Amino acid sequence: MTLTLERVSYRYAGAAAPVLHEIDLTLEPGRVLGLVGQNGAGKSTLCVVAVGLAPRTIGGELSGSVRIDDADTATASAPQLAQRAGILFQEPHTQLASSAPSVWEEVAFGPRNLALPLDDVVERTWSAIDALGIGAIAERDPGRLSGGQAQLVALAGVLALRPRYLVLDEPTSQLDPLGTRLVGEALARAAQSTGAGILIVEHKTNLLARLCNEVAVISDGRLVLNGNSDEVLANARLTEWGVAPPAERRLRRTAESAGLAWQAEWSST
Amino acid sequence: MVALTTALIALGVRGWSPPLIVLLAMLTLVLYAGAGRRYLPYLLATSPILLSIILINTFLYPANDVAFTLGPLVATASGLTAAGQATLRVLAFATSVALFALTTRTDELVDDLERRGLGRRAAFVVSTAIGTVPRMVERAREIVEAQRARGLDTQGGVRGRVRGLLPLAGPLVLGALTEVEQRTMALEARAFSAPGHRTVLRPYPDSARERALRWGLTVLTIVLLVGEVGGALGWLP
Question: B193 vs A161: CB contact, 8 Å cut-off?
Fold first, then answer.
């Protein structure tokens, strides 16, 4: 049971050239896979393809196959896919349904769509809200949240659907360091306790170093590196692909190039 | 339902008494609901329409029974009557709408409509259509501020303001169109197209008295409108 992309290429409707080329990627339940690459490399496109929204909802042309467990995204229905793989978009305000009067009801939007019993909706909603520590804003109007708060609320809405796989497109882009740490911890907990597989697109490689089992690098729509996170994030060619290595790696490299021996107790992870 | 039926009576039945009764009833309910102060903006918003109705009917109504003259303008008694009745009707209608808007929360209305069988798509359209207005206003304000920060004159005379419209309308419309695709994906990703009815979060009390009032008003409205069309209400003052 995995989320699998096999030789996937994707071209947007009306575009001359594909954005993704021959992508092979596997996400296993309970594992966290980081995806890095420079702007325009195809990370966000890969996210919408991985959960089956492209080409189903936005058109375009896909070759290869995308499977979420036993469901082929080309044939499974949208609600089926939504329960298997949840996605968090880069821009949180457009992810919010905008029809809910409070944050609590915004988070409950997904479970309500599934027509779950009311007790179940309430339990899932509070569980997601508590996981991200946003209980204090549960009664607030979702239209009046800051970018960071909206990001947490949108993420809670995804968690409330309890999908087997989470695809997160820069989930901490609008968060301060504390919020980033909170989200990192919540995701790690989600991966461990629910067994969800997480694909996380991030520029913050410090977070990826702490969170991920594997990291993949995408450049010009092609996967150029994929493997154990320590090894990938230590790769000397990261900067060539527009990726800043984690601070510790940079510090270590600087220390070693100055002739200093790196000591284990200096590591933060 | 109360607002809808009374608005129909106010607009559909001729004479002084139907709109007057509706207006007095609606004003009483607005005051009873403690919304008197919040009602004033609705009244102000209606005033340009009321003013034009009064002027047009008073001075341009086709009749010969001159009531008074104002320079080249001639007011007729029939025109004054028509102006008074039309003003009363629009005022009663606007007050019915205001009562509805002031006493009904959108989410509660949509929840209740869903509970009564309205499809999720229709319910979503209703709630987002209402919620879109303040969001567009907010976005327009942000765009104006951004354009102003880049040196565009949006506060000068009429010509300057007109010139400032295009840089406002372009990003506003294009931004809204771009958002449609993202919002569609977001809805699909949140199982919006799942079959069946959504979970109803809260039941709303609906007493026998409230149901009787709704049905009674509906029947009364139909009777009055049919009577009006059939010419059976000529005796009403």
Answer: no
pLDDT tens, residue by residue, A140-195:
988 888 888 888 899 999 999 999 999 999 988 888 888 888 788 888 877 787 88
For chain A, domains (ranges, CATH) are 3-266 (3.40.50.300)
> Which DSSP letter does residue A17 get?
S
Out of A105, A115, A117, closest to residue B197 by CB: A115
| Inter-chain CB proximity B193 and A79 less than 8 Å | yes
Q: How confident is the model at residue B39 (pLDDT cuts 50, 70, 90)?
A: confident
Do B199 and A116 meet the contact criterion of CB atoms below 8 Å apart? yes
Residue A4: per-residue pLDDT: 96
Q: Residues B157-186: what's their mean pLDDT?
A: 77
Mutual orientation of helices B208-229 and B2-12 as an angle, nearest 10°? Answer: 20
Closest listed residue to residue A18, CA positions, set A27, A8, A32, A28: A8
ipTM greater than 0.90, yes or no?
A: no
**Is residue B131 over pLDDT 70?**
no
Cβ contact B185–A97 (<8 Å): no
Other Cβ atoms closer than 10 A to A197: 25
Give pLDDT tens digits for B111-126: 888 888 888 888 887 7
Q: Any idea what the Cα angle at residue B155 is, between residues B168 and B136, rounded to 5°?
A: 35
Maximum separation of any 2 CA atoms in chain A, in Å: 64
Q: To 10 degrees, what angle do helices B36-60 and B17-32 make?
A: 160
The residues, any chain, with a CB within 8 Å of residue B159's CB and separated by 6 or more, are: none
Extract the tokens encoding B121.
């798509």
CA distance to A82, A163, B147, per residue, from A50 (Å): 12, 13, 38
Instruction: Locate all alpha helices (DSSP H) within chain A, ordered by sequence.
Output: 43-50, 78-84, 92-95, 103-113, 118-131, 147-160, 177-193, 205-211, 229-233, 247-257
- Determine the distance in angstroms separating the CA of B133 from the nearest CA of chain A, rounded to an integer: 12
